Amino acid sequence: xxxxxxxxFLENISVESLMQEYGSPLYIYEESVLRSQFRQLSxxxxxxxxxxxxxxxxxxxxxxxxxxREEGSSIDAVSEFEVRLALESGFxxxxxxFTGNNNTLAExxxxxxxxxxxxxxxxxxxxxxxERFPHTKVSVRINPGIGAGHHAHCxxxxxxxxxxxxxxxxxxxxxxxxxxxLTLNGVHSxxxxxxxxxxxxxxxxxxxxxxxxxxxxxxxxxxxxGFGIPYRPEQQALDMKDLSRKMTKRFQQxxxxxxxxLVMKIEPGKLLIxxxxxxLTTVTNITETPKYRFVGVDSGFNHLxxxxxxxxxxxxxxxxxxxxxxxxxVIVGYICESGDIFSRSGEEIHRSLPSPKVGEHLAILxxxxxxxxxxxxxxxxxxxxxxxxxxxxxxxxxxAESFEDLTxxxxxxx
Length: 414
Ligand SMILES: Cc1ncc(COP(=O)(O)O)c(C=O)c1O
Known about the structure:
By secondary structure, this protein is of the alpha/beta class. It has helices at residues 15-22, 31-43, 62-71, 80-88, 105-114, 123-132, 170-180, 198-212, 240-258, 270-273, 306-310, 403-407; strands spanning 2-4, 7-10, 13-14, 26-30, 50-55, 74-77, 96-98, 117-120, 137-143, 165-166, 183-188, 220-222, 263-266, 277-288, 293-297, 316-318, 326-332, 351-354, 361-364, 385-390, 393-398. It has 2 domains: 2-28 and 275-407, Lyase, Ornithine Decarboxylase, Chain A, domain 1 (Beta Barrel); 31-273, TIM Barrel (Alpha-Beta Barrel). The strands form 3 sheets. Strands 4, 14, 15, 16, 17, 18, 19, 20 and 21 form a 9-stranded mixed sheet that branches. Strands 5-6-7-8-9-11-12-13 form an 8-stranded parallel β-barrel, surrounded by 5 helices. A 3-stranded antiparallel sheet has the order 1-2-3. Pyridoxal-5'-phosphate (PLP) is lined by residues 55, 57-58, 76, 99, 190, 193, 224-227, 267-271, 369.
């Protein structure tokens, strides 16, 4: 991404020309950013120690999955269809780990049939699995009693969280495994998403390793994802270099004491794809009240729900006029709800930027993760197209939805 003649470009392609070619609104991804995020992350760990399982819930477009596969990524999947998409996108079953929650046995059976490793997050599911597949290898998700994340909805560890077998119930898991002759070969945990300091990650790591050392057949420990990216201009990124050094040192020491070469896994989503994507929109309307100047665009929380759902900040640029006299504005979408605000940051809703005019394009940055993958068809609005910019060229990687796409599942229609 760069600014030339006061306009936003992706590599050497202007936002204006992308909008002309593909229409508005539009998700754009930069291949070079995705590759460099992956390479930067993996270079922080010694070769052979770490397996990176991209958390495909962040963005499951197969064209992006292909890029990550080429880089050497494996997959973290959470649903049967995610597993199927990953397999049909060319990942080997052995590269996929399934960690759902509140799963049916049917989903687990599908994974087992496909030879995909499953990671079970409750004692009830572990027992169901054991009855169905005694004397097999399986791993468990634990709740280490510690959680962290950018919003309460994103904290997945600690006593308020529904995820995993609570660490103090691990003896019960071991008893089930003994009763049915299971081999518990891995321990998994994911404490939350949007974590900006190493502290909770390392604290959770200690708790997870305390559990892991009780597993005589241990082959891997999976520490999940959650690595925060700087959405705000002043926000400090999680220091991944420091964290990876500390995780490596601790894990190697653990492995040595355990007496076996163990594999460390992590499951980043946002860290890899978040900075690689942006949502482009067009200004359609300006409305003023005694309090605010509302700038309306042709997209909404149906396309990017993070600001509405979590109050999450996304940087917004006027891609048609990147600098100029700034005004305080509220960037709002076309969904028929007052909460449809892109410029939200917690309770604050306004933003200062070169005052957008009708017809200009706004770029909502760092929208690659949990953007299109959390999108909906609310208000009977179609999802936008997705475009990949690679080597100075752009290409469509998902077309925009049509009326027919939105109506095809209705039984009593046409
Ligand atoms: C089990 C699991 N692993 C990994 C992730 C990825 O998190 P992030 O995108 O913050 O790295 C998630 C996200 O919720 C998750 O639930």
